[in-house]
Amino acid sequence: MKLYRAQLMHTPASPFVFPDALQVLDDGAVLVGNGRILATGSYTELRAAHPQAEGVDLRGGVLLPGFVDTHVHFPQVRIIGGLGLPLLDWLDTYTLPEEARFGDPGHAAAVAREFVSGLASHGTTTALVFGSHFASAVDLLFREASRVGLRVVAGQVVSDRMLRPELHTTPERAYAEGRELIGRWHGQGRNLYAVTPRFSLSASEGMLDACAALMREFGDVRFTSHINENRREIEVVRDLFPGSRDYLDTYERAGLVTRRSVLAHSVHPSDRELGVMAEHRCTAAHCPCSNSALGSGLFPLRRHLAAGVHVSLGTDVGGGTGFSMLKEGLQAYFMQQLMGEQGYSLTPAHLLYLATRAGAEALGLHGLTGDFSVGQAFDAVYLRPPEGSTLHTVLRHAESAERTLAALFALGTQADVAQVWVQGDEVYARGPQPTPEVA
Ligand code: GUN
Ligand code: ZN
């Protein structure tokens, strides 16, 4: 058993429902055995009750639940920063040419290492991942995630039109390869499978039906895709599906809108779409950095919440600008501020919830990860800014835990991530810090 001592914060409930959902322990501790949280509370009390537990002293920083990124693309690591284009031009110019290279196992294996280490070194312990169009590359992704110990929910991306020939498959082949990948990886270790048509624009009705067949056959695989991201995309989808009421209907008709579905972006939904998303309890994954970078628009968070749609957060690497869920939280805050009365004023507690527990709920993993409640896996990120950094200074002077949390979102980066655990296993540790120069 290990006793981790730190200032810790988590949101076991939603601050959108319970305004005081943020729980803080200034001198707190988490008791961990076999990767599970056995107790969470004050350090003094837990130490007295468990004198035999090995102590891990994490004072001087903040311990948070590991981040849950609910929308991120494996084959897009190397195209992060392709700025200046709207979605469909960005896909054609930067994204699809890079994704076409993943039939080469050498390339796919190298990027799988970059991708998994990118997630872990930013404090992300669980991710819903758009895999590759190539089944062999998806295998390499799962293999690398397993080697490192990250939780990934991932799938082969499938499409049968409008991209480029190397990235197209057929509904029959998508079904067959999906079955094989599910058999090999779903429920193996920390891996889960997500059926992943790229978006309706690149998927015929036959392809969406093949996806639905997999969802029916395997009762607990997850589903993910894109929706209502960009106005031109929405127009093309309308033309491609003349019989559908709207974008959501293209998925809804196939039976793909369920509690197991996470739909990324949802920047331009109709009221009907929001109503159906709420009714079927699917999640909208909000990707604010991507929405800004690609000029997709301002996410109507208030309308989602009013309709009762569950919302989580995603980095959308590489439309998004990096793996940091702290940056993503800050950008979500900025954009809501800019929306005036239509925006929702997000507190640090909301940001923490969106970056952790909300994602776990989206994936149906809230009994396992996303907060520090007893029984959860010990999935955690230890943020400890290097001495001399601005964040270090600000934290030393923070007047409350809320201010500390706000400063972490405002200033925190990959450089502040000191250590990361999944189920009690260390999956990342920062290298030694350069010794400060003596004057
Ligand atoms: N829609 C279809 N494919 C993509 C993608 O790779 N990124 C984003 N942001 N939207 C998409
Ligand atoms: Zn995306």
Automatic annotation (TrEMBL):
Enzyme class: hydrolase
Keyword Phosphoprotein: no
Catalysed reaction equations from the record: guanine + H2O + H(+) = xanthine + NH4(+)
Domain Aminodeoxyfutalosine deaminase/Imidazolonepropionase-like composite span(s) in chain numbering: 28-53
Keywords from the UniProt entry: Hydrolase, Metal-binding, Zinc
BP GO terms, sorted: guanine catabolic process
S-adenosyl-L-methionine in keyword set: no
Function: Catalyzes the hydrolytic deamination of guanine, producing xanthine and ammonia.
Protein name: Guanine deaminase
Provenance organism: Deinococcus hopiensis KR-140
